[in-house]
Write a structure and sequence with these properties.
about 180 residues, alpha+beta, six-stranded antiparallel β-sheet, two-stranded parallel ribbon
Length: about 180
């Protein structure tokens, strides 16, 4: 199935507060997939702006919003994690995540990627603080948003490892989520 056809078939099931996981084909995407023994290499928080689905994620440009449909078109595959908690809790967590991002002005943490590689492939210790103004996509969605929505499987794993990868969303998924696609 073509990626945009897949998106159109699932769009009605995607809502405010979902987490999108993406699989890319660039050299960086393939490196992340290899280093993490992962299918997915990128994650983003889905939110509604009027009737448009947007994503907020950490990437080379920082943390910035983009139309979900445009982001999906850049990848070869994706899945959606739909939170199975009440919508007011989800809405509050999304609003707090966006507000927190605007206050912190997250920048992309290019230094964390080699550390994840060293930890996952060689078992070396990673010294990194999750509470900085630098982040990677999955630390933003798994740790920061996870804390706000009450997904402590993700938060505890991030604290234990000092990082969190896109694939970790699925490795440590709880019954608070439904995988779509």
């Amino acid at each position: 199935m073509q990626i945009l056809s897949k998106y159109e078939s699932l769009r009605g099931r995607i809502s405010n507060g979902c987490v999108a996981l993406f699989r890319g084909s660039s050299a960086l995407s393939k490196t992340i997939q290899w280093a993490d023994d992962a299918y997915f290499n990128h994650s983003a928080l889905v939110f509604l702006a009027g009737d448009r689905l947007m994503v907020l994620d950490a990437n080379a440009l920082g943390v910035a919003p983009e139309f979900l449909s445009e982001r999906i078109a850049q990848y070869e595959d994706f899945c959606i994690l739909n939170p199975l908690v009440d919508q007011p809790t989800v809405n509050n967590a999304v609003n707090l995540a966006i507000d927190k991002d605007l206050q912190r002005r997250f920048k992309y943490d290019f230094n964390l990627l080699p550390k994840v590689l060293l930890k996952r492939k060689l078992g070396l210790k990673v010294n990194h603080s999750l509470e900085t103004n630098r982040s990677i996509c999955s630390v933003f969605t798994g740790y920061h948003y996870g804390m706000l929505i009450g997904e402590y499987n993700w938060v505890n794993q991030a604290l234990k490892a000092n990082f969190f990868t896109p694939q970790d969303h699925l490795r440590f998924i709880s019954n608070k989520w439904e995988k779509i696609g």
